[in-house]
Amino acid sequence: MVVVEQLDTVLITGASAGIGAAYADRFARRGHPVVLVARNEERLEALALRLSREYAVKAEVLAADLTVPDERARVERRLSADDAIGVLVNNAGIEGGPALTQTTPDAVQAMIELNVTAPSRLVAALLPRLLARGRGSIINIASILALAPELFDGAYAASKSYVLSYTQTLHKEVAARGIRVQCVLPGVTRTAIWNATGGVDAFPPRMIMEVDEMVDAALTGYDQGELVTIPSLVDGAEWKRFEEARRHMLPELSRSVAADRYKSDIPEDA
């Protein structure tokens, strides 16, 4: 008798629509069971039903608001206890937001809870199991604003810069232990999340990528083993040059003396 090994279950946050729903579709199409996490239970149930019917995979709903500690803790417990889950897609996030000069402390806190705290805690909950078994994957969805914070106002870019740096550090720590890590930096993508900031059609059409196009490109980068995937970037060598320039500075970033340009040119006896 031939025994077919069960593929890892994939837990996807922000799975009720847009990018998260597309990831759920693609992984289910590949034969992976999925756990769908978002606030809107009705949408999750409809998606789970479709995935089960179309791809004959187990699709489970775990409705939770990741900004609420008690609800987030349910997801953390599932990640730490369910040995079937081997892939985490951290997609849930708040888009845009008001300018820093106009925002409130509560609005900043809400963004940090969803864009920074939630993915960090979910990874921390899952990682001990992945390390113990020596395999697994973590996909973190950031934004091109991690590289270009001047393009938008507000704290969103800073939160996505955290996701990029966090993923790079995570890769350094776990790559040699069998864990695959990827950070995806989408540009403007046509999702409902833009409705809160005036709609995606405020951008030139050439800047707007459809969700399926973005997710398919990101998964191709995942299959190719990329650490950082920028679906819109035509010349991948540009990212490599960017990284080389950054690494070139590393030996000069911490020294025992300040750079000469910060030394006063006024004679001591003046």
Automatic annotation (TrEMBL):
Gene Ontology, cellular component aspect: membrane
Keyword set, alphabetical order: Oxidoreductase
GO MF entries: oxidoreductase activity
Domain of life: Bacteria
InterPro entries xref list: KR_dom (IPR057326), NAD(P)-bd_dom_sf (IPR036291), Sc_DH/Rdtase_CS (IPR020904), SDR_fam (IPR002347)
Residue ranges occupied by any Ketoreductase domain in the UniProt entry: 8-189
One Pfam family from the record: adh_short
Statement: the UniProt record of this protein carries the keyword Oxidoreductase: yes
Matching CDD domains: SDR_c (cd05233)
Keyword Oxidoreductase recorded: yes
Classification via PANTHER family: DEHYDROGENASE/REDUCTASE SDR FAMILY MEMBER 7B (PTHR44196), SHORT-CHAIN DEHYDROGENASE-RELATED (PTHR44196:SF2)
Family from the record: Belongs to the short-chain dehydrogenases/reductases (SDR) family.
Protein name as catalogued: AraC family transcriptional regulator
Organism listed in the record: Dyella japonica A8
